[in-house]
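Quarterly update from the structural biology core.
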Amino acid sequence: MSVPQPLDPGQKAPLFSYQEDGVTVKSSALSTPYLIYFYPKDDTPGCTKEACAIRDSWSAFKSAGLKVIGASKDPDSSHEKFRVKYDLPFPLVADTNLEVAQAFGVYGEKKFMGRVYDSVHRMSFLVSADGIILHTYPKVKPEAHAAQVLQDFSQLS
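Predicted structure, tokenized:
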């Protein structure tokens, strides 16, 4: 087991692809800045709070020109149920083999109730249109994350 080592601002974001509306999208083809946020599991309390806070601020994200992409190890079928249940307007990456999480450095040792195990950590990255990490969020508070990202992005723009 290892401690997560998230990428730092100034580093190039790893390339990845995901499904959106039945089409494969490559991160290298994105022409706008984006937030990629990693979370442990669909439809769990903290993950739901974070996703719904982003959803509730969706008009501000759109106005800012900031794309949002969620990522967890859950499969597409779980993501689709989660998106529909909470009316999430952004795509979710099914990182079932943990390649994206490991590339961004968010997978590693966790401790919970005396148990130690490896898992995806709740971390996010604000990435420029040219693929450079602008801001790393190694400690995310689910309810406040959307507002923090929007504030940081407005200061960077």
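The longest helix spans residues 45-56.
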